[in-house]
C-alpha cells in the first residue's frame, strides 16, 4: 500500500548533483520509528486509506520481521519518505504480501524462487510535492535489493490507480487482481517483474537505478538474516572477462559514491 508518493507522469529524473542531498538510513532507534510511524499516519489519513486514531501513529507486525529492512529517505537531513523491503525465500516468508497473496506466492517459494517485496512506500504529504524525483529515489531501494540478493522476481502491491507507474518504470505486470488490504480502506493488486529479464531495459531507461556493490552492501549486509542468492557461475565469468578486457558490463557502472556513515548510505 502506498500513499502520497507516486508521481503524476514524468520520465525525467535530474541527475548528478541531486544525490548530494539524499541519504538512505535504516530506521532503527525508537525516535526514528516514532517519526516514521507519525509520517505514515499523516500520509495514510491524508490519502483516505485509514481512519483517524488517537495515537496518530501507524505501524504493523511486519516492521520487526527478520527478513525486512525499513529505510528512511532523507533530503537535506529531513525525513521525506520511507519504504520497507522484504526478502522472501523458501525459509523466510513473512510479509503482508505473502499473507494476502499466499495462494500465488507460496507455490513459487516452494520451488526456491527469491522475491524482493517492497512495502509501506510512503511520503510526507507536505514535503513530497517539493521533490518530484522522490518516488524514483524511494522505489530505487527495491531495485537495489533485487540486485544485491540476486532476486528472481520483484513484487509490488499496488492500488489500481498507480499500476501504470510500475509498468512504466519496472516493466511490472499484474499477476493477481486487486484484493482488499487488511486494516485499510483500499484494495491492491499484485504486480511482478522477472528481474533478470527486464534489468538492462530498466537501467537503460532509468540510469538512476544503477548502483555500486559498495552501496548495496552498506544498505543490506547483515550478520544474520537473508543472504544473497548465489550468482550463476557462467554469468560471473562473463562479467569478470569483460572487466579484464577493459569493457564494462551494462548496468555495472557505479554511481559516484562518497564515504558513508555507519548507519547511512549517502550518494
Q: Helix and strand string, N-terminal first? A: EEHEEHHEHEHEEHHHE
Which strand-content bin applies to the residues? 15-25%
At the fold tier of CATH, the topology name is Aminopeptidase
CATH class: Alpha Beta
> What is the overall number of helices?
8
Task: Write down the overall geometry.
Answer: globular
Radius of gyration: 18 Å
Q: What's the CATH architecture?
A: 3-Layer(aba) Sandwich
Model regions low in confidence, pLDDT < 50 over at least 5 residues:
5-13, 231-264
Return the domain count.
1
Largest sheet: 9 strands, mixed
How many beta-strand segments?
9
In whole angstroms, how far apart are the ends? 27 Å
Explained architecture:
There is one protein chain. With 267 residues, the protein is α+β, with helices and mostly antiparallel strands. The protein has one domain (2-150, 213-251, 261-266): Aminopeptidase, CATH 3.40.630. It has eight helices and nine strands. Strands 1, 2, 3, 4, 5, 6, 7, 8 and 9 form a nine-stranded mixed beta sheet that branches.
Amino acid at each position: 500500500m502506498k500513499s502520497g508518493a507516486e508521481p503524476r507522469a514524468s520520465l525525467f529524473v535530474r541527475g548528478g548533483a541531486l544525490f548530494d542531498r539524499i541519504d538512505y538510513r535504516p530506521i532503527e532507534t525508537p525516535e526514528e520509528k516514532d517519526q516514521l510511524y507519525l509520517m505514515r499516519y499523516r500520509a495514510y489519513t491524508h490519502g483516505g486509506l485509514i481512519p483517524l486514531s488517537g495515537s496518530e501513529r501507524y505501524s504493523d507486525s511486519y516492521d520487526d520481521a527478520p527478513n525486512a529492512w525499513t529505510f528512511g529517505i532523507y533530503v537535506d537531513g529531513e525525513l521525506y519518505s520511507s519504504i520497507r523491503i522484504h526478502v522472501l525465500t523458501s525459509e523466510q516468508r513473512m510479509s503482508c504480501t505473502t499473507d494476502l497473496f499466499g495462494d500465488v506466492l507460496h507455490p513459487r517459494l516452494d520451488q526456491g524462487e527469491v522475491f524482493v517485496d517492497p512495502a509501506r512506500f510512503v511520503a510526507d504529504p507536505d514535503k513530497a510535492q517539493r521533490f518530484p524525483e522522490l518516488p524514483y529515489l524511494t522505489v530505487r531501494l527495491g531495485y537495489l535489493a533485487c540486485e544485491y540478493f540476486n532476486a528472481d522476481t520483484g513484487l509490488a502491491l499496488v492500488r489500481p490507480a498507480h499500476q501504470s507507474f510500475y509498468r512504466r518504470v519496472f516493466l511490472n505486470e499484474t499477476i493477481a487482481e486487486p484484493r482488499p488490504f487488511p486494516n485499510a480502506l483500499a484494495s491492491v493488486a499484485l504486480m511482478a517483474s522477472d528481474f533478470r529479464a527486464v534489468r538492462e531495459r530498466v537501467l537503460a531507461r532509468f540510469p538512476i537505478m544503477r548502483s555500486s556493490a559498495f552501496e548495496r552492501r552498506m544498505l543490506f549486509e547483515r550478520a544474520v538474516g537473508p543472504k544473497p542468492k548465489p550468482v550463476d557461475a557462467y554469468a560471473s565469468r562473463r562479467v569478470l572477462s569483460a572487466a579484464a578486457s577493459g569493457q564494462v558490463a551494462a548496468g555495472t557502472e557505479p554511481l559516484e559514491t562518497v564515504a558513508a556513515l555507519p548507519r547511512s548510505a549517502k550518494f
